[in-house]
Write a structure and sequence with these properties.
single chain; 344 residues; alpha/beta; seven-stranded mixed sheet; 51% helix
Length: 344
């Protein structure tokens, strides 16, 4: 879920075309969960092939990635590695929520209550190692770079953004700003009309652009104090301070120059060492990624068809038409570039 900074951070609406020609590092787990949550059947469960294998994440990944490529965007998918030990409590709570939601969804289905089945079904979503592995396989068939982060995917993407290897990080979570991303892009995986969870109305979801420099300037703080703010309102690595929301947290970090002073003022002694969390965000665990690993390759049409159609029952006509149209457009674009260079 990440740190709650939404009410403090200005978000600039953009079109996907804004990212044309730019490399962006995608928080892959974050995006795959978006696909699982949004691409579901009437019973609230994800789509599956004839063998019972979940395919919602593959459906979203294939069509959305093609869409990004068609707009000239260069996606770099960054996958999580082994989670930090600081995240163990958060992961435990998420497992408990999913287990409870699975039971409620099953009960709702038996009672014929499709609304509750959908609601609880979305909370019961799980991304298994096999599902992640297949997502990587599909991306490689499409010629899209896959980066294996040592820990958090958004941390690796943020470090790459900070170094200038990519233009920015793509994630729904504001954690990227704490991890050092210069630019954060939200709503890249899912755009358009979306139903609000648990409500009977829709909202128009558009891509958002958040620049860290503008965030710091508006709030009057630096990255270190933004990390303190995150610790106060709660992150995936620590419990929030009681009775402190984002606005109160902002005032506290603006007024104090050490976290010890903040602890004294709040009169709350946390049961975790804030310095461990601060260090995790300040110096995120990451790897050096060679520039050669960030280059896109041409999609392999035959491998894509074999993977999606033969293995997972996707429509042959639809897969052939979509990848065929993309490759044709790509070939025409490359011819035009060659002619331009020749006559230029």
């Amino acid at each position: 879920m990440g740190v709650n900074l939404s009410e403090l951070v200005d978000k600039e609406e953009i079109s996907l075309e804004f990212l044309a020609g730019k490399k962006v590092g995608i928080d892959s787990y974050n995006m795959l969960y978006q696909f699982l949550a949004s691409i579901r059947g009437p019973d609230g469960m994800p789509l599956a092939d004839s063998h019972g294998n979940v395919t919602s994440h593959l459906t979203g990944l294939y069509y959305r990635t093609l869409n990004l490529l068609e707009k000239g965007i260069k996606p770099i998918y960054v996958f999580d590695g082994k989670p930090s030990t600081l995240k163990s409590e958060t992961l435990k709570k998420r497992r408990e929520v999913r287990t409870d939601a699975e039971a409620k969804s099953s009960t709702a289905l038996k009672e014929g209550n499709l609304a509750d089945a959908q609601k609880f079904g979305s909370r019961a979503l799980r991304l298994t190692p096999d599902m992640v592995g297949e997502a990587k396989d599909l991306l490689r068939c499409m010629g899209v770079p896959v980066i294996e982060a040592p820990q958090e995917g958004e941390a690796q993407a943020s470090v790459m953004s900070n170094k200038g290897q990519i233009f920015g990080a793509v994630s729904q979570d504001f954690d990227c700003l704490l991890f050092g991303a210069n630019n954060l892009f939200r709503n890249i995986g899912i755009t358009g009309k979306r139903k609000v969870a648990g409500k009977n109305f829709y909202v128009d979801v558009k891509p958002e652009y958040i620049q860290s420099e503008k965030v710091f300037a508006k709030l009057g703080i630096d990255r270190k104090k933004l990390i303190w703010l995150g610790i106060l309102v709660g992150t995936d690595f620590n419990e929030k301070f009681p009775r402190i929301g984002p606005k109160t947290a902002l005032k506290l970090v603006q007024q104090h120059n050490s976290f010890e002073e903040i602890i004294k003022e709040t009169k709350h002694e946390p049961d975790f060492d804030y310095r461990d969390v601060e260090e995790l965000f300040t110096n995120p665990v990451s790897i050096e990624v060679p520039e050669s690993d960030l280059e896109l390759k041409s999609p392999d049409k035959e491998k894509i068809i074999k993977f999606l159609v033969e293995k997972h029952d996707f429509s042959l006509d639809r897969v052939e038409s979509t990848i065929g149209a993309f490759l044709k457009k790509k070939e025409e674009s490359e011819k035009q570039k060659s002619l331009g260079a020749w006559f230029g």
